[in-house]
Amino acid sequence: HMRVSSACHMVLGGQTAGFIGRATDTLFIVGVLGAAGTSLGFGTPMIAAGLGYLFGVESTFGLQVGVVALCAVLFTASVYVGLDRGIKRLSNVNVAITKALLLFVLLAGPTLFILKMTSNSVGLLVYQFLRMNTWTDPLTNSRFVEDWTVFYWAWWVAIGPFMGIFVARISEGRTIRQVVFCMLGFGSLGCAVYYGILGNYALHLELTGLLNVTALVLEQGEPTAIVAVIASLPAGRVVLGVFCIASLVFLATTYDSAAYALASSASTALGHDEDPERWHRMFWAVALALLPLAMMRIGGLDPMRTASLVASMPLLIVFVLMAVSLTRALREDNLPKRTYDS
Question: Is residue 337 part of a domain?
């Protein structure tokens, strides 16, 4: 079964299908709603700001609702054609679009500066890895650690289990070594390239005075600053349009994978090779859409940050159970098989 409680079977034993197993799945569902809702809540205002810039309209809450509706249309189409023809094709197309976008920014922007700063940043990360991971800012209390480090770690804790379930579903036939290597290796490499190119392009704009990115973030918010950075490129409106399309598809595939994991965990009689019912995935997609809209309506980013922190706390326990269960399963799987002469 594609449920978190099943991943904890080596610890829970006979309780996997009992009360403790159901409680574990419930904690997982609450965590995913908070984490995935936060992802959608962060992405939606950015896409709405981009569309507002392109079409000359103000980025209002109504426009953000429209962005979520567009994601829902893409998600619905993906659900009805299945994993192989739906989310797989969407993801493949989006990866190609993102690669082309990053290559364009690298070549059209300050190429040498981006390459030098990326290399320099990797060196600093390796050199100061332990310091950055243990830094708590005890003297100045700038709240950087709370607003960034703690928040993102909590967000990733809440995202981890649902991403694990989805990756396990689409990775059938691969070895554990292959899955771990690809997720850690290529996932980290993709993030490093993305931040290295786009982040250092924005840094170049700030340092050269071409665009006051810091002032835009402080005065108008992060979505407006991101749109301004992308629009500053050659053929900026075209590039921004491509960026919005890629972001929209990323959001839709996040919907799909999160709804799939939620529906799998909430299903009681799902076979090994069976997918959750379409209506079930649609139900969770609606829940995922309504939550970030409600938080954006209430107070913007702060409620979403709080939701991620709250959702991640119970999942820390689930993570420990999953880690112990995996260790026991691997140890048992590696025990020498005894043979007996008949």
Answer: no
Band of pLDDT at residue 75, cut at 50, 70 and 90: confident
Q: What is the pLDDT of residues 175-193, one digit of tens each?
A: 888 998 988 899 889 999 9
336: in domain: no
Separation in Å, CA 104 to CA 8, 203, 211, 245, 333 = 45, 17, 19, 16, 48
If you compute the radius of gyration of the chain from its CA atoms, what whole number of angstroms results?
A: 22
Q: Are 291 and 305 in contact (CB under 8 A)?
A: no
Q: What are phi and psi of 2, to 5 degrees?
A: -85, 65
Task: Tally the domains of the chain.
Answer: 1
- Give per-residue pLDDT as tens, 103-125: 999 999 999 999 999 999 999 99
Q: Is 60 exposed, middle or buried (0-12, 13-18, 19+ CB in 10 A)?
A: exposed
Host domain of residue 68: 4-330
Lookup: tokens for 308: 């991620």
Over residues 24-47, the mean pLDDT reads 80
Distances (CA, A) of 118 to 110, 149, 152, 193, 235: 12, 21, 21, 8, 24
Helices 301-333, 151-170: axis angle to 10 degrees equals 50
